[in-house]
Amino acid sequence: MRRTPDPGTLAGTSVAGASVAGADAAVLIVGGGPVGLTARALLERWGVRTLLVEKHGELSPLPRSRLVNVRSMEIFRGLGTAAAITANAFAPEYGRVRFRDTLRDRDFASAAMIGVNAPMRESPMSGVVTSQDRLEPVLLAAAHGPVRFGAELVGLVEEADAVVALLADRRSGERTSVRVCYVLAADGANSTVRHLLGIGTTGPGALGKVTTVVFDADLGRWCAGQPAGVYFTALGSFMPLYPEGGWAWFGPTPEDAEGTDWADLVRHALGPGDGVRPEVRRVEHWGMNAFVAERLRHGRILLAGDAAHAVPIIGGLGMNAGLADVHNLCWKLAGVLQGWAGPGLLDTYEAERRPVAHLTLRQAVTNARLLRDAQSRRREQLRAGGAAPDQVELPWTEQYFAQLGLVLGVAYRSAAVLTGDHTPPEPSDPSTDYVPTAEPGHRMPHLWLTHDHSTLDASGEWFTLLTPDPATWAPHTTAPPPVRIEPLPREHTAVCGVGPRGALLVRPDGHIAAHWPAGPRTPDTLTEALTALTALTGSHDGRRP
What we know:
The chain is globular and about 75 Å long. By secondary structure, the chain is an alpha+beta fold. Mean pLDDT is 88; it is low at 1-21, 421-431 and 538-545. The longest helix is centred in the C-terminal third of the chain and has 38 residues, at 347-384. Helix 1 packs parallel to helix 8 (318-338) and helix 8 runs antiparallel to helix 9 (347-384). The protein is built from twelve helices and 25 strands. Strands 1, 2, 3, 8, 9, 10, 11, 17 and 18 form a nine-stranded mixed sheet that branches. It has an eight-stranded mixed sheet with strand order 6-5-13-14-15-12-16-19, sandwiched between helices. It has helices at 34-45, 70-79, 82-87, 132-140, 192-197, 220-223, 262-270, 318-338, 347-384, 404-408, 493-496, 525-533; strands spanning 10-12, 20-30, 50-54, 67-68, 96-99, 109-112, 128-129, 147-149, 151-158, 163-169, 175-185, 201-216, 230-233, 236-242, 245-252, 279-293, 297-298, 301-303, 309-310, 448-450, 453-454, 463-467, 483-487, 503-506, 512-516.
């Protein structure tokens, strides 16, 4: 495990001899996957200038990440992209996983993806099953800031008030430098930025090599009447790629990968039968990793997504955790850059998201174990001989790996949450059900303020105060940070734990920053809270003004 150097040191290749352009952007985003593209859109909403660089020459042509969970769809609802993402996705009935001996066989087990297969009262949105190559173009179109494909980051130098990044054009070899205020690294599990900075990782590390085979074949006779987002079999897993067609198989990479007949491998995995000949379109080899970075911040450089934490794919947690990272981070970057927050606010990013990364990794490892358990039970049935029952009792509930407590129930603990006399508990068991709560640190519960306007919609590029008595809470100053006051209908006061003059202060990322059950303690209660939350007064102990 490598030691992490102190901020301010040189990382990577020297920038000597490269022409440095001043103030190219406020934030350099490294990585053009879903996490980097979402960060670009979020920062643009705040009016922050960005430059995104992606070492590949185009968006991903491969399906890769498949599940956009309900919390991510809430984020995309705020960005105005949810409708376009849903339009490209599968119908809700594909929000299910099925277990079979081969794809041609009947299910021996099945489980719904709760929050995907049907609407849920806890959110105005549902998650969707889609493919990354359908998601990324929507996210790219959601912002207008410059994007440089084929530009690889090869060096970083931190200065007192900026970061100088060295970029290499992968086609021409030309090197240029850009100077920015901050770098947001979303460049994947094999992050160049993380390696340049010497940031170590904790966790199991590399779990094995996996191959994805994208192919065309008519598999409707075995799947059309029993749709699913994933079919797990003993010979690998199958995924429908797009509503109009296309499939992918993924499984352990064979020892002789170069000599493998991929069409024959997929045909064998389909099972004996009707001589289907898959038409292979693409083959991708990749590594499955499991780790959390030792640090998420190195001075003016911040890690997000797989660069910060890589988790096994079972349960679809990885990309969604990265989206939550940048949803947490971007409003803080905007506040510091625009002067309504102190630099100390950025310390709360690691304090809030790194514990969630560990919980996510633990849940993903648990998901993989549960999957193995289900398949092991089936093998035991078949070894027993005779007429094996059609169904295997699953080692979890009918809620797909029961992870809504982690998806919606995470509680943040940091200086950006004023807890008063109540300390929000971290979800000790993220596999439990989600229980809505209005305690500080938690995601604001979804409640309808009007017929089509949720409490979640009230969040945006501002802090939101929800109160049944707006007049009492009118701020005595117009100084930043930005804040809006929204009336809270009386029928929601009990759920929110507030009296006639009480209030909830909600952060731009939709998490509750402060809770006043009875009303303001002084005329300056709201102003003092905002000042403390945004680190404009230095450190504080998280107690409510």
